[in-house]
C-alpha cells in the first residue's frame, strides 16, 4: 500500500490553552498573572507597549507597597498638595490602635520630606519617637520637663529680631504684624496656662487685664520678661491696667478684682502644679533653619496638666517660629522654607481641658496659608470624642473631616460608626481595618508572640475615593534609628543578683 505524504509526518501534540488536558496531566484552571517589574521610563522604554501605569500615585515620599498589587505608593501631605494636587490642604490624620506603626509611618514621611528640603518640626514628642531621627538629620533637640529645661512663655522668640530686620528693609506693616502675632501668642499662652491651673478659662475682664499688663511690660521692661515680671506689673497696678480692671480709682477694689488672677500667676511663678517650666528664661531657643523636636518624654503620663501645658507651649513656639520664617520669606529677606509639623498623640493634649481643641483648630485651619504640612496622630475616634463638651467633640471630629488625607491602621469594629460618620469607608475597607487589629499569634517554637498582623499596614483614604491599602516596610537604616523599645533590650538581672546575694549572706 502506498503511503501518503500526510501520514508520514509525525503528529505534533500541543497542550491546550490550559496545559495538557486530562487526569494527572497538569491542566490549570487559573490563568496565572504575568510577573510584573517596576522600572523607570529610561530603563524600560524598549518594552513598549507592554508597560502599564502604576495605578497608585508616584509623587512624594515612598511609603510602602500596595498590599494586593505590590505597586509602590508614594504619599505625603505636602507633595500630594503641592505637586500632585491630589488633596485640598496639606494635612494628614493618622488613626490606629497603639503599636501598629503610626509613629513609624509619620517618621518615614518626615525622613523623606527632609530629603526634599522640608523641615520636620515635631512639636512635642511624648515617647520619644522622633528624637533619634531628628538627631540623625542634624536637627535641634529641645528637652523640656521638670528640672530639664524651661520655655519662657513670654519670650517672643525670633520675632523681635525679625521685626527689626523687616523694618530696616522698609517693611513697616509686616514688622508690625510679626510683633502683633508674637503679642497675641504670648497672651494666648498665659491665658491657656491660667485655664489649665484653674480648670476654667479666665474671665473677660481678666483677659483684658492680662493684655494691658503685657503691653505695659513691653513698653517698660528691658530685655526679655518672665512671668514674674508680669505678676509684678499686675501687683503694682499702673494706670493702664487699672483702667482695664475698671477699679474706679479705688485701690481696694483693684486688689479685689485682680486677686484671682494674681493667685493663678503666683501659682505659675512659684513652682505650683505646673512647676517652674514656664516661668524661667528659655534654655534652648528654637531655630527656624533646622529640623526641630521638642523632647517632652520625661513628663510622666499621669502629669496630665503639665503635659498639656508643655505641648501647648511647644505648639505656640513652633508656629511662632514658622510665622517669623514666613514673614521674612514673604519680604524676600530669606529663602522660603516649608515645614512638616507632627502632632503625635494628639488626644493627650486635647483632653487636658477646654480651649485645647480651639487652639489646634486655629492651627490646622491656617496650615495652607502658612506653608505648613501637618500630620496629626491619634488612636481612635472614641479617644477624640471622649471630650467633656459637645462643641469640643464637634471640632475634634472636624480635624478628621477636614484633613486632606486620612490614614487608618487596625481599628476595632466598635469604632466604625464614628469613623464612617467622619470619612466614608466601604464595608470591605472596614473589614480590612478590623482584620488588622487582630491579636498576634502565639509562636510556641520561639516562645513569644509573632508580629501583630496589622503592623505597618495602613489604608490611605482621600475623600470618598477607594482607599489604597499599603504595607510599610522599614529599611535597615530605619530599623537602626527607629527603635521604640530601647529600654527593653537588656534583660534586667539586678533583682536576680540581689536575691542571690542575700541567699549567700
Ligand atoms: N512597618 C513596620 N515594620 C516593622 N516593624 C514596625 C513597623 N512599623 C512599626 N514597627 C515597630 O512597631 C513598634 C510600634 O511602632 P510605633 O510606630 O511606635 O506604633 P504606634 O505609634 O502606632 O503606637 C515599634 O517597635 C516599631 O519599630
Ligand atoms: Mg506612636
Automatic annotation (TrEMBL):
InterPro entries (alphabetical): P-loop_NTPase, T4SS_component
Matching Gene3D superfamilies: P-loop containing nucleotide triphosphate hydrolases (3.40.50.300)
Protein name (Swiss-Prot/TrEMBL): ATP/GTP-binding protein
Species this chain originates from: Georgenia soli
